[in-house]
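Lecture 7 notes. Example A: sequence first, then its structure tokens.
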Amino acid sequence: MRIDWKSVIPAQTTPFNQDLSVDHGQLAGHARWMVGAGCRGIVPGGSLGEGATLTAAEKLQVLETLVRAVGGLVPIVPAVASASTAESVRFVQDAGAAGASGFMVLPPYVYTSDWREMKAHIAAILAATDLPCMLYNNPVAYRTDFLPSQIAELAHEHPHLAAVKESSTDVRRVTGIRALLGDRLEILVGVDDAIVEGIAVGAVGWIAGLVNAFPHESVALFDAARAGRTAEAFALYRWFLPLLRLDTVPKFVQLIKLVQEKQGWGSARVRPPRLELVGSELAETLAILKEALAHRPSVSVEVVG
């Protein structure tokens, strides 16, 4: 299925049963809810999806569940991340056979090195598939920074590199990539609290986090920003920002899953080494959510499915 990069695409959380096995029923229902709210794709197995704690078999099972649940409506674009190039290549090949529409490609876990090695890693993954791919640049989390000139190099050498998820937190990177490549790559914002600024300088899509709990508001914010309805976008953004900022701190998985649970979808369960929030962290997050819900705006979005 063709990927519409100019859209809100959730980086979906992975729900767990009490024994910490994947809850595939909840996974499917949650995806259907977000797609029904206007999201145009699903990215499973990324950082927010706790991909580092999922086995290769579990990642494929998650993909297969999502393909069955919403694959007829939207593309499923799994994250490709592992500690080794060989494992990433195997996953791309297996996931392509299992129904993936494309891939979000990350640098390797744990090992951080220079451009020569990182380019070879990304190139090996891209060579293993002819499906459209999105490069994920998140130097804050992964300590590998793909500079605009390096992204341009990859784009020139790999025609099916179609997009970049820019999560450096520096919106100047959007204009930097555009200056080198024009419209050759679709640029998506990967940091929730930079979405309006990112769109203003040329980003066209959003790989979103709080969308897992607030899909209607996320789609409404994105649509207003993309359409240039500035007053509407900033009014919604001001309300949303305390929640969106939960996506930008080390415990973003725990925070988003807690908010999602309180919105009636899934549970706050996480796999170790993560632990659920307690004490002041729990109280502060619940206070942020309570304040947001007390002033929750009414939004209207186009629905699908």
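Example B, a different protein, same format:
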Amino acid sequence: MRILVAEDERITRGSVVRQLEALGHEVAAAADGEEAWDLYNTAPFDLVITDWEMPRLSGLDLIRRIRGVESARFVYILMLTGRSDKTDVVAGIEVGADDFLSKPFDKEELRVRLLAGERIVRLERTLSRQNIELREAGDRIRQDLAAAARVQRAMLPRENIVTRSVRTAWKYVPTDALAGDAIGLHLLEDRFLVAFVIDVSGHGVPAALLSVTAMHALAPVPEAASLLRDLSGSSGLGTVRAPAQIAVELNRRFRSEESDGRFLTTILCVLDTHSGFLRLARAGHPLPIIIRNGKPVPLGDAGGLPIAIVSDADYEEESIQLEPGDRLHLYSDGLFEQHRVSDAESYGIVRLTGSLAELARLDPGVALERAVSSLAEWAGCEGFEDDVSAVAIDWSGPAAR
């Protein structure tokens, strides 16, 4: 070890230095505290042995200076003193001494105190190195998560779909860098608007991977591999597959035994933007909300089990004729299951529906922003407990074509 000795008594200083060098240590010696402080700042030391009383700078003040320096390198401090009062020992420990050695001392006592100090220094060095490695690993993980989050966000709708008869908006608020929610908006054949919201059980990387895989499967291209496409035209929606059949195929793709016990809920909609005819299927997902003339439209409860629960599940489909001016909302349960900080009350579907109805006259994008802001204000929190995803679709009617 590299050891700094601060001792104003020449004979004691020489004796300590000789004993330390005989034990194989590299030693630097100082005749007072100021000289010791200067030496301390010129090179790194593993251990400092300092007398209590010294001219210019006492041992206590030297220790205060050493401990006051921000350093990742731990230094063990052994204090030499002829004092035996407990208050003196307490004072030394409080300023940062690690051990005491009473004068006069013999060589064996010094040796074993050094062995104890060497073990502690070695442990501190190992701990410091491991902390650095952990920080570096944490930085790499954060960088990887940020890159994965960028990939995930790149798969979200790039822009809102606006035609002469339809206008869309979406809002996506993940709780972490990676989310288990997914949103899809695709206009196919310049007529059929396909919209979906997916919510994967759990959080973190596993949920995000399943979410990204589902979004990839529900991408409209390549047509031959996309679950949205039915090139036979048997659905009556051109090359677009009917929502219930999309759910069936999605469930076949994500078998329960291959999803690590995770499942996903989804709502899938296909809107004929020319006629306003809406077809939708749900897999364990919350009912959509349709606002008509400022009021919610009653809907049926057709649907089925979440995806990846039962491999051969069937899904019911519901058809709705929209009226000009109707607004359709799809959303994940994070938008209404959020709890208020003050009393743990849940926001609930009733409050959500009322909020969306009040905002129905606003632009759909503005309405979603206001709805999410209202939820955060009501809950009294900055972040949400679960991912929040929402889609708003306005149909203006066939006359607008």
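Note on Example B: The mean pLDDT is 89. The longest helix spans residues 107-154.
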